[in-house]
Write a structure and sequence with these properties.
By secondary structure, the chain is an alpha/beta fold. 45% of the residues lie in helices and 9% in strands. The protein contains 15 helices and 10 strands. Strands 8-6-4-3-2-1-10-9 form an 8-stranded parallel β-sheet. The protein has a two-stranded antiparallel sheet with strand order 5-7. The chain starts with 12 loop residues before the first strand and ends with a helix. The chain binds 2,5-dideoxy-2,5-imino-D-glucitol and manganese (II) ion (2 copies). Residues 16, 92, 137, 139, 183, 219, 247, 293 line the site of 2,5-dideoxy-2,5-imino-D-glucitol.
Length: 394
């Protein structure tokens, strides 16, 4: 469909092997789809216009595989990447499926489990480096608890920090230029997961020994599950230079982690998220991979999986076009200019304290009733956003 919304590798869209490879199982029913062979995943994603694939260690190398088997699998996968032109921007570790992680990985109370988790992460990072990944994501799916009787949360945070500091130092010791992206989620599969939101993660990073190589990987569903704004989480990460990766999908507030097709639920939130990432309105854009951490409905067969993947990418491109038109709309620009106007040059007064600025502040003729009198015209502004989103305004 040549309508300008078909993706190309230049769009930087990526999918986890586990996303299009999801077989549709859920807690109430087994898989509904056959396993898609890895090579077919690469071929179909390349055909659809994707830029790359991401993976957990065990998405590619089965748990417990020996070195020879691992090397054969990796060699075959690398051939598939070469044949399709797909790249691997991000790699991560499965620290949640094996029962050894039943009480967590980096936050398990048993130090041997923590040591095993760090060692598994080291192997996964080596695999990621071998495949060309520059970002390593850490999603602490089991880093939590069902009862706070289990451990003091401060110990859990301390152990998490120890493991990440160890892995950062080890990575630097290998001479690898990698960035670690920490992914938050408030609950599921644990009753409560530690460091539940991107905001928690941003503070946690400030306490790490090598915080300069650590950022965040916010996910739409994980911020929306507790009713938070993904746009604000991503904006805060961008504002402090810590948006190292992003997981795009769809989610309805207050539900389990649905990992739905991007934009398929909160279209308005997706519109403003894409506008933020694309840097419209004259702000710096996000230039990293646009990763869809999502999967097709359980109702779908394999054809539906590729409908899902194409839908994620097309929706992003459609929203980008609509958001660009919104920011180029003269009426939008006029309303925003009026609401931000500073005819008397007051704003600079607050950019850094001085005795002079304090005196100037005190002398300002500020009449709260006069300031309160003018409306902001956000009703018209939001209606313009919605009409651009609906495609009713060019
Ligand atoms: C779930 O949202 C998590 C895992 O799928 C993975 O560790 C991470 C990578 O994006 N997202
Ligand atoms: Mn998720
Ligand atoms: Mn994710």
């Amino acid at each position: 469909m040549a309508d300008g919304f078909d993706p190309t590798p230049a769009d930087r869209f990526t999918f986890g092997l586990w996303t299009v490879g999801n077989r549709g199982a859920d807690p109430f029913g087994g898989p509904v789809r056959a396993k898609i062979p890895l090579r077919r995943i690469l071929d179909k994603l390349a055909e659809a216009g994707a830029h790359g694939v991401n993976l957990h260690d065990n998405d590619l190398v089965p748990f417990g595989a020996g070195a020879a088997e691992r090397d054969l699998i990796v060699a075959d996968f690398k051939q598939g990447l070469a044949d399709t032109g797909l790249v691997v921007p991000m790699a991560t570790t499965n620290l949640f499926s094996h029962p050894v992680f039943r009480d967590g990985a980096f936050t398990a109370s048993d130090p041997k489990v923590r040591a095993y988790a760090v060692r598994k992460a080291m192997s996964a990072i080596e695999l990621g480096v071998e495949l060309g990944a520059s970002t390593i994501v850490f999603w602490g799916g089991r880093e939590g608890t069902e009862t706070d009787a289990a451990r003091d949360c401060r110990d859990a945070i301390g152990w998490f920090r120890q493991c990440l500091d160890f892995l950062c130092a080890w990575t630097k010791d290998q001479g690898w230029e990698l960035r670690f992206a920490l992914e938050a989620k408030p609950n599921e599969p644990r009753g409560d997961i530690y460091l539940a939101t991107t905001g928690h993660m941003l503070h946690f990073i400030s306490t790490l020994e090598h915080g300069e190589m650590c950022g965040v990987n916010p996910e739409v569903a994980h911020e929306n599950m507790p009713g938070l704004s993904m746009v604000h989480a991503v904006a805060q990460a961008m504002e402090c230079g810590k948006l190292f990766h992003i997981d795009l999908n769809g989610q309805r507030i207050g539900r389990y982690d649905q990992d739905l097709r991007f934009g398929s639920e909160d279209a308005k939130g997706a519109f403003f998220l894409v506008r933020l990432l694309e840097g419209f309105g004259g702000r710096p854009a996000y230039t990293g991979p646009l990763h869809f951490d999502a999967h097709a409905y359980r109702s779908e067969d394999e054809d539906g999986v590729w409908d899902f993947a194409k839908g994620c990418m097309r929706t992003y491109k459609i929203l980008a076009a609509r958001a660009r038109a919104f920011d180029q709309d003269a009426e939008v620009q006029q309303i925003l200019a009026a609401s931000h106007a500073d005819p008397d040059g007051v704003a600079p007064l607050l950019k850094g304290y001085s005795a002079a600025s304090a005196a100037a502040l005190a002398a300002l003729p500020l009449d709260p009733d006069a300031l309160a009198a003018t409306g902001k015209r956000y009703e018209r502004l939001d209606q313009l956003a919605m009409e651009h989103l609906f495609g009713a305004r060019g």
